[in-house]
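Revision sheet: structure tokens.
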Amino acid sequence: MYNFDIMRLAIGALMVFTVFPVRQYARNWMAVKLGDDTPEREGKLTLNPFAHADIFGIIFMIIIGFGWGRSATINPSNFKCKNKKLGMLAVSFAGPVSNFLFAFIMSFLYALSVYLNWGKTAETIISYMLILNLNLALFLLLPIPGFDGGDILMQFLPGKFLLKIAPYLRYISLALILLVLFGPFRTYIGIAVRYVASFMVSISGNICSLFFG
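Predicted:
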């Protein structure tokens, strides 16, 4: 158990320096492509993990498998597209999509490790990377202000309502994060993660069986 805990912490730290910058870069790249150069001017159109680091997000990611990075400022008014809400939706989905793609790569590597007998240690590391990616994707898709899911939700709420709650968004976010991390929602996320992970591994296993079966 001790060795596994050390491995889990090490993989969590690895996630911070690999997956976090990739998902933040994907989000910022989409914004820049749509015409907003704010992320580039803020120095966040980069894969440098320190440019996206959030100390609390890092701690949570390493310890319990959920976390977040520091997002760049996105200004939808700079988008070249006419429908700014659709543009913001594209930006908001870019991060989770990168996580799901990374997770699918991990599921494929896991299937390969089984077929090619890479050993239990390799299987454990790869499977945990898969689970953490899905944890991150689903956690940040929750409708919490400041998360991808919160940004998505904001596109469908009336402007007057958003103005009224704007001063309280920080407190709302904190309350919802605590509710998720220490309440029943964490269990539900875990169930969803296991279901998606099993689905991905099943598809990857079928692909591998075509070549190694």
